[in-house]
Design a protein that fits this description.
Elements (H helix, E strand, L loop, with lengths): L3 H9 L6 E9 L2 E8 L4 E2 L6 E2 L2 E7 L2 E5 L2 E13 L9 E3 L14 H14 L1 H10 L6 H9 L11 E10 L3 E8 L4 E6 L4 H9 L6 E4 L3 H10 L4 E4 L1 H18 L30 H18 L4 H8 L3 H9 L3 H10 L41
Helix pairs in contact: 2-3, 2-4, 3-4, 5-6, 8-11, 9-10, 10-11
The chain binds a DNA duplex through strand 5, strand 8, helix 4 and strand 9.
Protein name: ISL3 family transposase
InterPro entries: Transpos_ISL3 (IPR047951), Transposase_DDE (IPR002560), Transposase_Znf (IPR029261)
Pfam families: DDE_Tnp_ISL3, Zn_ribbon_ISL3
Length: 379
DNA sequence: CTTGATTCAAGCGCATGGGC
DNA sequence: GCCCATGCGCTTGAATCAAG
């Protein structure tokens, strides 16, 4: 056996210095490797000083990469050293084996890097299934945590920066996502969607030549202040989105010109009333708006004031007024979008530096509503 | 110097809830 | 049904202290 151990040592820890294999035992599906550290000294993680004064030792059981399809557990005896530096806060410290262990680590570094590679390639659930096949099973949460703990990769300053908002919790918490439009890769995430935050981020990257954004006033202001040298353009998605909304509302306004479909004699007639709504039954948005409309009317009927209802819903008073005047939720919804056409609005389209849409048309992120739709220019 | 007991904190798996 | 964030409780390593 003594002749085999050096070969096992070379096989199992060829890239690890300071570890000596003492025995290898196979129990069913588990390979248990007993090993110990051999270094005479270790550096204190607190002060960085070397110490050779041993305080004690204990066993650690880091999981390792599988061997021949069997789970491998290393029974590693590590020592605790006494830190002899008087100014150091630590009295003792445990030694770590470079490229094998880390503080609080329950896996060897090579197993950790393998799991990171699986996580990066397959992400949570698929990655977890793959680790089962690789005989190193971990949960999907563990893979995601490993990826999250990686340092952020260095990203070059984009020439064309895409700016849009994202939601951490829909209707409540919004942030800003920045994308390199040319490589189509995300560059950074900002914790909010404030003009100041975006302006600071852009000002730190003077190489940006074009800012591609939606028409939110806080993005317009942030881009104008932070990257005055950059050309600001509207992104394609919002142009199509605005166009689609405009077409939808135009058709709705002219619905009176549409000839009614001849009633089919065999179909039940009681369905005629719900069909008057442009929203499909069961649609989440439609049901939510109908419920909101009914609740607002109920509260007003119960004697609550409109400002009080507005506070309870986290809406502006104008929105409550529109709902209170509307006989149906559908009327309230479209009144909410169409009755605001009094001030002149800009058409969607390329935006020059310094230009910004009318700020009052886009409510601030107050944590009360979901992302509002953009107002449409009057036809 | 060694050993054992104790406490604290990090790592981990699981359950749950919200959003889509 | 899937994805993701979050919280909870358990396990285990780190750190400290006391006793032999």
């Amino acid at each position: 056996m003594n002749e085999v151990l050096p070969q096992l040592n070379e096989l199992l820890f060829s890239s690890v210095e300071g570890v000596l294999v003492e025995s290898v035992e196979v129990i069913d599906t588990v390979v248990r490797v007993e090993a110990r550290t051999t270094a005479r000294r270790a550096t204190c993680p607190g002060c960085g000083c070397w110490s050779g004064r041993i305080h004690g030792s204990y066993l650690r059981f880091p999981r390792d990469l599988p061997t021949a399809g069997k789970f491998v557990v290393v029974s590693l005896r590590v020592r605790r050293f006494v830190c002899e530096e008087e100014s150091c806060e630590r009295m003792t410290f445990a030694e770590q084996v470079r490229s094998l262990t880390r503080r609080f680590g329950r896996r060897t570094e090579r197993l950790r890097s393998t799991l990171v590679a699986v996580g990066l390639a397959l992400a949570g659930r698929a990655g977890a299934r793959m680790t089962d096949a690789l005989k190193v099973p971990v949960s999907r949460n563990t893979l995601l945590r490993l990826i999250a703990s990686l340092p952020d990769p260095a990203t070059p300053v984009p020439r064309v920066a895409g700016v849009d908002e994202y939601t951490q919790r829909k209707g409540r918490v919004y942030g800003t996502v920045l994308v390199d439009v040319e490589t189509r890769r995300p560059v950074d995430l900002l914790p909010d969607r404030e003009a100041d935050t975006l302006a600071v981020w852009l000002a730190e990257r003077p190489g940006i030549e074009i800012v591609c954004r939606d028409r939110a006033p806080f993005f317009a202001e942030g881009a104008t202040r932070g990257a005055p040298q950059a050309l600001q353009v509207a992104d394609r998605w919002h142009l199509w989105h605005n166009l689609g909304e405009a077409a939808e509302k135009c058709v709705y306004r002219q619905r009176g010109c549409l000839r009614p479909t001849p009633a089919q004699p065999e179909e039940p007639q009681e369905e005629a009333e719900p069909a008057a709504s442009p929203w499909p039954t069961g649609h989440r948005f439609a049901e939510r708006t109908r419920a909101k409309h009914a609740t607002i009317h109920a509260l007003l009927a119960a004697g609550h004031s409109k400002p009080s209802v507005a506070r309870q819903f986290g809406m502006t008073l104008n929105t409550i007024l529109r709902f209170s005047r509307a006989a149906t939720a559908e009327a309230g919804r479209f009144a909410a979008n169409h009755n605001r056409s009094a001030p002149a609005r800009r058409q969607p389209g390329p935006l020059r530096a310094g230009s910004s849409p009318t700020p009052t048309l886009y409510p601030k992120a107050t944590g009360s509503s979901s992302k509002p739709s953009w107002p449409i220019a009057p036809s």
